Amino acid sequence: MVNPVQPAAPSSLSGPPHPIVVGVTGASGAVFAMRLIQVLVELGRETHVVISPPGRTVLEHELDFRFSPQSFEADAFLRHARLTAARFGAKDEGDSTDASLARVHVGRLHWHAHDNYMAPIASGSFRTSGMVVCPCSGGTLAALACGLSQNLVHRAASVHLKERRPLIIVPRETPLSLVYLDNLRRVCELGGVVLPAMPGWYQGVQCLADLVDFIVARILDQLGIEHTLSQRWGSGDLTTD
Ligand SMILES: Cc1cc2nc3c(=O)[nH]c(=O)nc-3n(C[C@H](O)[C@H](O)[C@H](O)COP(=O)(O)O)c2cc1C
How far apart are CA 154 and CA 156, in angstroms? Predict the structure, then answer.
């Protein structure tokens, strides 16, 4: 009999908002991570980012974004994110000329090396409002399901589970093997939210950016973060015709 451990609801966390952690792993769909991080910092959230080595490979392969494993330039990442969003059809992106605003956004993005267990997000005493693993590979999913801690993505995610804080994983794979399905179920039982990179098509999709934002919007909903990324069903502007 499944007995899921429930994480604290984001709304029950009191005081000012704490940082959000984003773990990026080597599943396809790097654009979801890039857009999520961009939106979080632009919405004013301190955002701690850790990228696994295969996550770096996929960022390079899919989005042509390169960085050295020893260092990461937040401003280059956010510039690339805006240009990518514009390339995928998002409106009002890629032409940000407000340098001071861009500096504020950059200051909110904190990058940690994948093997830096001295990073604040490796400890439960560092307060956060939740973590998203996006995209989440089958390898990282397996690590989370059985409590491995072989890099900082695993460690930060297992901290969120033990602290009963929101952990949202965004898996991407198809078809799904039985071991993959078992691991998804296990992470659910442990209190994680499984939010597959599986956008809906009912919102009048006009460009790829709409599909990306559909998923990012659902992630923000899980974190309890207000946004206007996509229209809500029942808001009056959408029909089923
Ligand atoms: C271009 C590319 C795409 C990949 N896509 C997926 C994927 O969609 N899902 C997945 O589980 N693994 C995918 N992989 C394989 C993972 O990167 C690999 O299993 C890796 O060990 C995951 O390690 P990580 O979880 O530490 O990032 C992909 C690899 C590459 C190079």
Answer: 6
The percent of residues in the chain predicted with pLDDT above 70, rounded, is 90
Please report the pLDDT score of residue 53 as a whole number.
98
Q: What is the pLDDT of residue 234?
A: 85
CA distance 195 to 39: 18
CATH C-level class of 19-223: alpha beta
pTM of the model: 0.92
Q: How far away, in angstroms, is 26 Cα from ligand 1 center?
A: 4
Domain regions of the chain by residue span: 19-223
pLDDT in tens, 132-178: 999 999 999 999 999 999 999 999 999 999 999 999 999 999 999 99
Distance 54 CA to ligand 1 centre (A): 6
| Pairing outcome for strands 193-194 and 167-171 | parallel
Q: Is-contact 185 160, C-beta < 8 A? A: no
User: How long a stretch of residues is the chain?
Assistant: 241
Distance 139 CA to ligand 1 centre (A): 7
CB under 6 Å to ligand 1: residues?
25-28, 52, 54-55, 57-58, 61, 137-140, 172-173
> Nearest to residue 197, comparing CAs of 5, 84, 36?
36
Top mean pLDDT of 9-13, 30-34, 230-234 is at: 30-34
Of 28, 51, 64, 137, best ligand 1 pocket probe by most atoms within 8 Å of the beta carbon: 137
